[in-house]
Amino acid sequence: MTDFLSTGTLPDHYQQLAKTVRDFAKSVVAPVAAKHDREHSFPYEVVSGMADMGLFGLPFPEEYGGMGGDYFALCLALEELGKVDQSVAITLEAGVSLGAMPLYRFGNDAQKQEWLPLLASGKGLGAFGLTEAGGGTDAGATKTTARLDGSTWVINGSKQFITNSGTDITKLVTVTAVTGETGSGGLERSDSGNGMGKKQISSILVPVPTEGFTAEPAYDKVGWNASDTHPLSFDDVRVPQENLLGEHGRGYANFLQILDEGRIAIAALSVGAAQGCVDECVKYAKEREAFGSAIGRYQAIAFKIARMEARAHTARTAYYDAAALMLAGKPFKKQAAIAKLVASEAAMDNARDATQVFGGYGFMNEYPVARHYRDSKILEIGEGTTEVQLMLIAREAGL
Ligand SMILES: Cc1cc2nc3c(=O)[nH]c(=O)nc-3n(C[C@H](O)[C@H](O)[C@H](O)COP(=O)(O)OP(=O)(O)OC[C@H]3O[C@@H](n4cnc5c(N)ncnc54)[C@H](O)[C@@H]3O)c2cc1C
């Protein structure tokens, strides 16, 4: 842990981790990225490699099978993976930050002992089921219910767009569900600022498989084709009362806290995407010739790439800043929102510019910049849209 994280003065152990993941991304992830994207197949062999490296356990203590690192270490890994394959990066991000972290933050000791070693090992994946058809940004509009029948929760409803929820190694889905009305620990203010509600929303652990739980057929997405995303249905799903995660009625508030952290992780992934576009463009602009000269010698191209580099760098400093505050135990909500905002926009802008630098080849799916062009849009939507980040920043600014 460090009080100050600068892009030029990273302590050795962080630099070594970044290099190890960079080498893995180049040698293992990059060669199969286009194939999995084309075939919309989940990269089991890559995930297994990441598991062997301990990446799924990066921020968790060794007593739970983790690597004893911190959240910033996870971010560095995400940045390196995001440079070459966003699908692989989001699989790790969702597995750790959304799948396992709620257990680590809010689980009791028995729950942690039962689930964290499996999730930290990467041999099993956890998913985070908050979004529903009628409530993404307005996640407090949850309609899924869980009622107690004796000492058993009975869950009914559906979730939408849930990452890592239908793979062969998915072992757990944590869902938010309405568990009552009013009373203590009632609904918190939602990201959408829609005000106070009366529902009590709790988080409940649903092991996979459980009777009545179904991961419906995967979505046909614009990008992140090798990442696993499903609608989920819950039809009288019965799990023990002890599967309540955290305090009764605090599920929604707890998930918002998880999303604050997750925004730093998504910012790191976005910086990777933005930097990946720069790296591809620098190589290409030196090789591709037009009118007798490498296109990188034309200022129009060189300046475009320079601006891309500046976007990636400034977005990186934004996520380092948010992570440093988080590691120091200081408030970081605004900085996380800023990092997510500028980094996701940097990724999208760089993907568009990189496609331009590549000309017609940039529109061919086999080129990494074309994949970044399709993949990057969701960075401005998932784990809080651009509009949500602006709302949070405006609110923190006193508006
Ligand atoms: C590939 C993928 C993976 C995902 N993975 C997960 C996952 O693992 N778990 C999970 O729970 N969810 C997941 N999601 C859901 C994702 O977090 C939501 O899609 C996102 O939060 C936006 O919600 P929505 O789609 O319902 O859009 P909506 O909330 O309907 O928003 C539509 C538009 O309206 C805007 N808007 C909404 N309210 C306001 C307002 N008050 N003021 C101004 N503008 C507003 C939004 O910014 C957006 O532009 C995933 C989504 C995708 C596409």
From TrEMBL:
Any Pfam family the entry gives: Acyl-CoA_dh_N
Coiled-coil ranges (or none): none
Cofactor: FAD
Gene Ontology terms for molecular function: acyl-CoA dehydrogenase activity; flavin adenine dinucleotide binding
Transmembrane regions listed in the UniProt entry: none
Ranges where the Acyl-CoA oxidase/dehydrogenase middle domain occurs: 127-237
Domain Acyl-CoA dehydrogenase/oxidase N-terminal: 12-123
Annotated SUPFAM superfamilies: Acyl-CoA dehydrogenase C-terminal domain-like (SSF47203), Acyl-CoA dehydrogenase NM domain-like (SSF56645)
Domain (Acyl-CoA dehydrogenase/oxidase C-terminal): residue spans on this chain: 249-396
Record bears the keyword Nuclease: no
Listed PROSITE patterns: ACYL_COA_DH_1, ACYL_COA_DH_2
Keywords for this protein: FAD, Flavoprotein, Oxidoreductase
Record family assignment: Belongs to the acyl-CoA dehydrogenase family.
PANTHER family linked to this entry: ACYL-COA DEHYDROGENASE (PTHR43884), ISOVALERYL-COA DEHYDROGENASE, MITOCHONDRIAL-RELATED (PTHR43884:SF12)
Name of the protein in its database record: Acyl-CoA dehydrogenase
Species this protein is from: Mycolicibacterium hodleri
Organism classification: Bacteria, Bacillati, Actinomycetota, Actinomycetes, Mycobacteriales
